[in-house]
Structure formats: structure tokens, C-alpha cells
Design a protein that fits this description.
Blueprint lengths: L1 E4 L2 E9 L25 E9 L5 E11 L7 E10 L10
Antiparallel strand pairs: 1-2, 2-3, 3-4, 4-5
Length: 93
């Protein structure tokens, strides 16, 4: 996360998992995907948010998920609006 000017922030995240699994007693084959040494799932995330007041924030986030077992990528786009209602330590209503 980096706040480059007041009220605006950007952020980035990278997730990566690797393992060398050896599953024994897996007669159903249900967990075969966990035993694949070549499967290294990854996810990239980028976000930008704008705080128009101390009570509200708008956020846009993009994720690229490369963790599916069929090799397909999943692109996700989120638009979020966060609004705080009620009393809190800074303001008691």
C-alpha cells in the first residue's frame, strides 16, 4: 500500500504457493491435484482507493488468479464502497 497524495492509495500483492506433496492412501483419486509437483498456483492483485471523507471509501481492485487445476486463468474485477455509520472513538453521536 502506498498513499501517493492525500485521499488516494494504491496497492499490489503477489501470492505464490509451491509444495512437493506425496499423498499415500488416496484410493479415490480425489486429492491427486495436490500431489502434482509442477502445480504452483499464483495470484496477482492491484488496487486503488479514494477516501472522499473519513467515513467513506471507494475501492477498485483487479485480481488475476492462476491457481485453477485446468490451467485457465480467472480475471476478477471488484468495485467496493465502504461507509461507516454510527459512533466511534473519534466522534460520539
Amino acid at each position: 500500500m502506498y498513499q501517493f497524495i492525500p485521499k488516494w492509495r494504491v496497492g499490489a500483492r503477489y501470492d505464490w504457493l509451491t509444495a512437493d506433496n506425496d499423498i499415500s492412501n488416496n484410493s479415490s483419486g480425489e486429492f491427486d491435484i495436490l500431489a502434482q509437483d509442477s502445480d504452483d498456483p499464483k495470484r496477482y492483485s492491484l488496487m486503488v482507493d479514494w477516501s472522499n471523507s473519513e467515513f467513506a471509501r471507494s475501492r477498485l481492485q483487479y485480481n488475476r488468479d492462476e491457481s485453477r487445476p485446468d490451467g485457465e486463468t480467472d480475471d476478477q474485477l471488484f468495485l467496493q464502497y465502504i461507509h461507516s455509520i454510527g459512533s466511534h472513538p473519534a466522534h460520539e453521536f
